[in-house]
């Protein structure tokens, strides 16, 4: 996939995923640029670009890993260094965008993904390539073009080529929120769908945030009574019993999601599916964060195989759990870079991709 005018393009990588950077550069027929990213003794990030980027298109590969805050600072400093060195175009290639789960207002918190978007734009990025954002509305937080690529064609191909007797499978939504994604997969594979209802996230405690605190005792002569006693009181949300909507008995159950990080909910869902008669259970996700003791939990679970892409490095986790398999998506990222550099349309990369993917 050699690209013309390769002297005008340079790929730089941070410390998050150098292996993916090498694969992308190899597919493009170029080498990874000379850039040193180190951490000083006081934990400050130092960036030294070892070759000229003046007038060149710079593509900075940096994904989100367990060392997420350092990953972000490396990306911001590298982008700003290219900006002050007169790069013509600075494109961030961030397969997994950190903080994309924090895209909604919660209590007295903030929308962290919007803050990150502003920081990335101000650092000098002129374009962003990412993959399977947890919340698609995050694209609207950026003041620069964002290409949100999809890994679903690679995962669908894995199902068809690597899962024996996949025609006897059913696509499972781990919770009602992921039912649209599961439906999208099921329709293209011509399979049935099942939804696990009742397996919800633990609700955050509202008892300490002031919502239930009584109004302050003040003098009646200085305040107006608005009648708090007549305000409607909503019943507390109760966790319903876990139920599987759909038949999985004697079938292969395939759970699909955009990421797998804390695996406890996946393990719990797999146990329910096993009880309902599923004889083999797969989990497919784009981003395999696999934090904490996820490999051990997966190894001891009824899940037979966990399939993730290499948007996030997980070689250590694979050594701890033999069930983890990897699908390479470097060809998609390299083709996106080639098309952007040659000013070609990106729509070909989104063919047969639905909004629910």
From TrEMBL:
Stretches that traverse the bilayer: none
Keywords, sorted A to Z: Nucleotide biosynthesis
Ranges for domain Ribose-phosphate pyrophosphokinase N-terminal: 9-124
Gene Ontology cellular component terms for the protein in this record: cytoplasm; ribose phosphate diphosphokinase complex
Metal-binding among keywords: no
Biological process (GO), any one: purine nucleotide biosynthetic process
Highest rank taxon of the organism: Eukaryota
Recorded GO MF terms: ATP binding; magnesium ion binding; ribose phosphate diphosphokinase activity
Pfam families xref list: Pribosyl_synth, Pribosyltran_N
Cross-referenced PANTHER family: GH23275P (PTHR10210:SF53), RIBOSE-PHOSPHATE DIPHOSPHOKINASE FAMILY MEMBER (PTHR10210)
Family to which the UniProt record says this protein belongs: Belongs to the ribose-phosphate pyrophosphokinase family.
Name the UniProt record assigns to this protein: Phosphoribosyl pyrophosphate synthase-associated protein 2
Organism: Araneus ventricosus
Chain's gene name: PRPSAP2
């Amino acid at each position: 996939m050699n690209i013309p005018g390769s002297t005008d393009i340079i790929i730089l990588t941070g410390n998050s995923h150098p292996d993916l950077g090498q694969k992308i550069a190899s597919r493009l027929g170029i080498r990874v640029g000379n850039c040193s990213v180190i951490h000083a003794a006081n934990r400050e990030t130092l960036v030294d670009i070892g070759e000229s980027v003046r007038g060149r298109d710079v593509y900075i590969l940096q994904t989100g890993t367990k060392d997420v805050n350092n990953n972000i600072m490396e990306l911001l400093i590298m982008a700003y260094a290219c900006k002050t060195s007169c790069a013509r175009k600075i494109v961030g290639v961030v397969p997994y965008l950190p903080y994309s789960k924090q895209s909604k207002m919660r209590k007295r918190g903030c929308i962290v993904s919007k803050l990150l978007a502003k920081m990335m734009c101000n650092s000098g990025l002129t374009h962003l390539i990412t993959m399977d954002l947890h919340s698609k509305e995050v694209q609207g937080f950026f003041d620069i073009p964002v290409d949100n690529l999809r890994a679903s064609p690679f995962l669908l191909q894995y199902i068809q080529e690597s899962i024996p007797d996949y025609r006897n499978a059913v696509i499972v939504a781990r919770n009602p929120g992921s039912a649209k994604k599961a439906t999208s997969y099921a329709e293209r594979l011509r399979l049935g769908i099942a939804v696990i209802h009742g397996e919800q996230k633990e609700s955050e405690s509202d008892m300490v945030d002031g919502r239930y605190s009584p109004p302050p005792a003040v003098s009646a002569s200085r305040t107006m009574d608005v009648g708090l006693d007549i305000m409607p009181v909503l019943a507390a949300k109760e966790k319903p019993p876990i139920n599987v909507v759909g038949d999985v008995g004697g079938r292969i159950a395939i759970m699909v999601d955009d990421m797998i990080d804390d695996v406890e909910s996946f393990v719990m869902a797999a146990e329910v599916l096993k009880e309902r008669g599923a004889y083999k259970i797969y989990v497919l996700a784009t981003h395999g964060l696999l934090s904490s003791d996820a490999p051990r939990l997966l190894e001891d679970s009824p899940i037979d195989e966990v399939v993730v892409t290499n948007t996030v490095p997980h070689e250590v986790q694979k050594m701890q759990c033999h069930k983890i398999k990897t699908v390479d998506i470097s060809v998609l990222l390299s083709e996106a870079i080639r098309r952007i550099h040659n000013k070609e349309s990106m729509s070909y990369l989104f063919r047969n991709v639905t909004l629910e993917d």
